[in-house]
Amino acid sequence: MKPESILCPRPGGLYCAPGGFYIDPTRPVDRAVITHGHSDHARSGHGAVLATAETLAIMQARYGDNFAGAMEAVRYGQKIERDGVEITLVPAGHILGSAQIVIRHKGTTIVVSGDYKRRPDPTCPPFEPVKCDVFVTEATFGLPVFRFPKSEHEIAKLVKSAELFPGRTHLVGAYSLGKAQRVIKLLRVAGYDKTIYLHGAMQSMIELYERHGFDFGPLAPATADKKKDFEGAIVIAPPTALDDRWTRRFSDPLPAFASGWMGVRARARQRHIELPLVISDHADWQELTHTIAEIAPGEVWVTHGSEEALLRWCALNNQQARALHLVGYDEDEGEG
Ligand SMILES: [Zn+2]
Ligand SMILES: [Zn+2]
Fold it and tell me: Domains in the chain: how many in total?
């Protein structure tokens, strides 16, 4: 069976015609399968949603109890059937609950990666490569210039800076879902045991992770009346808060930002980031190309991001590939 008759791009997203469902639809549909909880992939208003229990919990926290008509939680590895199409969710290593969607129909296997990375992440199980006929990949950082350093190395820079400048408040911009929790966990793994302060917008997702069994050590809200406490402290905030008057409550703030985009010097400069931390929840160029080489699928389909260089790499490596040009998944800088 031609893979295009099993899965094809439609204006609302990737559609599986024989199974009657969309993957990460960008508009309300009857049946949706969701890879993970980031807002460009997980939207409210669908009829029925199939996802991991963690992703459903994230959607519920964001959109309220009635975010979908019906929901079905599946475990990683559990086989589900929809009109003769077998669906399995497999870890993607991106954020808590993130999954690749494996579709099997009449002997053809298609894997939709969703967003993914290959580096270890203390907040979610690692990406599992699945042999397939078609591997549908993202390419957010699909350029050879994107080679991310070890996350531990970036965290060590942050800890060192906090030691060197005890009078300054280290304000770390980190996306509130996934990145913030990973940064805090990495700080703890690195032995940083002081209280970490949180912007108010961080609270609900931190609590959600805590309900899923994560222990982040001592945390406290970054409330205005405690100015003195913040000297030399690390404060985690959504990236948008760094440009905000909110930062004025801190003495001599030192703006940092944890994102794959911080690998681009101009971006860090433009945002007045003194301490860029290149920590991404996406695959960098090496992770993307190594993953394709490892899986060696019949075909690669690229959903969104910088597809051109990746397509060229595929051509040079005799890997059949094409771009799907899906729209609606343009991540904001913070999520990178
Ligand atoms: Zn994502
Ligand atoms: Zn995304």
Answer: 2
**Ligand 2 geometric centre to CA of 218 (Å):** 30
Ligand 1 center from residue 1 Cα (angstroms): 31
Residue 200 CA, ligand 2 centroid: distance in Å: 24
Taking only the tens place, the pLDDT of each residue in 171-209 is 999 999 999 999 999 999 999 999 999 999 999 999 999
Instruction: Say yes or no: 15 and 82 in one domain.
Output: yes
Domain of 40 in residue numbering reads as: 3-145+282-323
Same domain for 132 and 259?
A: no
Q: Tell me how far the alpha carbon of residue 156 lies from the centroid of ligand 1, in angstroms.
A: 25
pLDDT tens digit sequence for 67-98: 999 999 999 999 999 999 999 999 999 999 99
Residue after which a domain boundary falls, among 277, 303, 331: 277
Q: CATH number, domain at 122?
A: 3.60.15.10
Taking the C-alpha atoms of residue 123 and residue 36, their distance in angstroms, rounded to an integer, is 14
Helix (H, G, I), strand (E, B) or coil at 230: helix
**Ligand 2 center from residue 40 Cα (angstroms):** 6
Task: List b or e across 129-163, with b for residues whose CB sees 16 or more CB atoms inside 10 angstroms.
Answer: bbebbbbbbbbbbbbeebebeebeebbeebbebbe
Residues in the chain: 336
Instruction: Answer yes or no: do 287 and 270 share one domain.
Output: no
- Residue 334: C-alpha distances to residues 209, 226, 271, 278 (Å): 19, 27, 12, 12
Angle at 288 between CA 286 and CA 291, to 5 degrees: 100
pTM: 0.96
Nearest bound ligand to the CA of residue 116: 1
Residues 6+ apart with CB under 8 A from 225: none
Question: What CATH number is given to the structural domain containing 165?
Answer: 3.40.50.10890
Q: Could you tell me if 11 and 141 lie in one domain?
A: yes
The answer as to whether 218 is a domain residue is yes
- 291 and 272 in a common domain: no
C-alpha distances in Å from residue 306, one per residue of 118, 289, 324:
18, 13, 12
